[in-house]
Design goal:
With about 475 residues, the protein is α/β, with parallel strands linked by helices. Helix content is about 40%, strand content about 20%. It contains 16 helices and 14 strands. It has helices at about 5-20, 25-40, 55-60, 75-80, 115-125, 145-150, 165-175, 195-205, 250-255, 275-285, 300-310, 330-340, 365-380, 395-405, 415-425, 450-470, and strands at about 45-50, 65-70, 85-90, 100-110, 130-140, 180-185, 215-225, 235-240, 260-270, 290-295, 315-320, 345-350, 390-395, 430-435. Helix 5 links the parallel strand 4 and strand 5. The longest helix has 20 residues, at about 450-470. It is elongated.
Length: about 475
């Protein structure tokens, strides 16, 4: 940052700090920002905030370790006296030598004001570990004239000349600096505390075109560009929920390939009317392997069975495979490879790309899947084409965090698919679709009741929209 630019900004924000008295518009805007950041960031993390001001946002996020950086000494003094449990440093975020790595790095309303966005982002690379999330919010250029008017009327903080930044510009800066944008969202149509109307517009209407184009602020969530892991050094847990699948078990065990350093197979059997449990038991004994395990499900539903399997898993990577052989076991290594290569942090199988075998999926099932694909892609702000494919892969470490925060959604999903998808999206994981060939089952009948479960899924979309989209 050049001396002239830096000194001008420091003088400006010191003056703001001396006379800061938030008006009704600024208070409401700050309250909304805090609400959105609390949705994206659970308490108890290590958080670094650049341009931390008086420290209110950092304090409200309840970090296990919170560090705020601001080049206004008067802002830092106020923040330090208000929140002595947090650390506030007077430094230029472009060049500050910040020690340590953080789970979350926040740039709230700073990129519009800084001299060199690229240099600022490059400076925080050293403060990122592989799971760090960088969250940026910045003004929409469409609001320049309204905000200038509000400042003249002393309804908003005074600002110096600001950068012109579009969502494309932010994504481009992130790419240049070694970050990958995961999602981008627009918030706040009406930054005024008008009862009922502001809540309706800011919670619901802002998410629909064309209103989203005129939102006051854009949020961008990114991660450091991933580093490839050696698949041969990973351990893998394959979880199979099996109900009335006795005719598939022997072939399934013979066809699941060894992946990585070690592959364990975890069967969870629940409520079969055939002899699935005994058949699995017999095949484990016949194989003589020490890496195949069988558990009897105590609860009901595939979701409950999958959760039990994940609890028992010990691998670095956990994946689900349906016992009906509709997804080829031989395809499992490509899922693990996509995860190890860093293409995504939640790899989701997609049955709707390649041609299917006859009767593999009925016409109304295809229509339903396409509808839910569109609905969930919109809900999650990430593309997800096939929500109901039974093959999904993620890091066990991420699953453990997901399970610890499951209370946010509750036990709403009997299938297990949406529990994982929603949880991964809430954690800001990178979701990636992986197309597979979907085959017809050769033994037994499907355990899915198409029409009743379709209605249940529709209710789940409505439920999830309140938890993920209309926040």
């Amino acid at each position: 940052m050049t001396d002239k630019y830096r000194l001008q900004r420091i003088a400006h924000w010191n003056k703001v700090a001396e006379n800061i008295q938030l008006n009704i518009l600024s208070k409401f805007y700050q309250k909304l920002l805090c609400h959105y950041y609390k949705f994206f960031i659970p308490p108890g993390l290590r958080i670094l905030e650049l341009g931390s001001g008086e420290g209110n946002l950092l304090h409200n996020l309840k970090p296990a370790c919170g560090v705020g950086i601001d080049f206004s000494a008067k802002m830092v003094s106020k923040a330090s006296s208000r929140y002595p449990d947090l650390e506030f440093l007077c430094a230029d975020a472009h060049t500050a030598d910040i020690q340590g790595q953080f789970d979350i790095i926040i740039l709230s309303d700073i990129v519009n004001d800084c001299e060199d966005v690229q240099r600022l982002l490059m400076n925080i690379r050293k403060n990122c570990h592989e799971r760090t999330r960088v969250i940026i919010n910045y003004f929409n250029n469409a609001w320049r004239i309204p905000l200038a008017t509000a400042r003249r009327l002393k309804l908003a903080k005074p600002l110096l000349e600001q950068n012109w930044l579009s969502p494309h510009d932010i994504k481009n800066f992130l790419d240049l600096c070694g970050f990958e944008e995961i999602s981008s969202r627009a918030f706040i149509v009406l930054p005024l505390p008008v009862p009922l109307l502001s809540n309706f517009l800011n919670r619901f209407i802002v998410h629909f075109f064309p209103f989203s184009l005129f939102a006051l602020t854009n949020f961008s969530i990114s991660r450091p560009a991933p580093k490839r892991k050696n698949i041969e050094e990973l351990t893998i847990s394959v979880i199979i929920a099996a109900r009335n699948e006795a005719g598939h078990i022997e072939e399934l065990l013979n066809r699941i390939p060894k992946i990585g350093k070690k592959t364990e197979i975890i069967f969870v059997e629940g409520g079969s009317s055939d002899n699935t449990f005994n058949v699995i038991e017999q095949n484990i004994l016949a194989s003589g392997t020490q890496d195949v395990f069988l558990y009897r499900q105590q609860g009901k539903g595939k979701g409950d069975a999958v959760q039990l399997g994940f609890q028992k898993a010990t691998g670095d990577v956990v994946l689900i495979l349906d016992a009906d052989m509709t997804v080829r076991p031989e395809d499992l290594p490509i899922f693990v490879q996509a995860l190890a290569d860093g293409k995504g942090e939640f790899i989701n199988g997609v049955r709707l790309v390649y041609p299917m075998e006859d009767e593999a999926m009925r016409f109304f099932n295809i229509l339903g899947n396409k509808f839910f694909s569109f609905a969930f892609s919109w809900l999650l702000n990430q593309q997800i084409k096939d929500t109901l494919c039974g093959t999904k892969v993620m890091w066990r470490q991420d699953y453990e965090i997901l399970a610890a925060h499951r209370h946010y959604f509750g036990e709403f999903d009997p299938f297990g698919d949406f529990d994982l998808i929603f949880g991964a999206a809430k954690m800001n994981l990178k979701l990636i679709d992986l197309p597979i060939r979907y085959q017809a089952r050769r033994y037994g009948t499907t355990n899915i009741s198409r029409w009743s479960n379709g209605w249940l899924l529709l209710k789940m979309v409505i439920f999830a929209s309140r938890k993920i989209k209309f926040i």
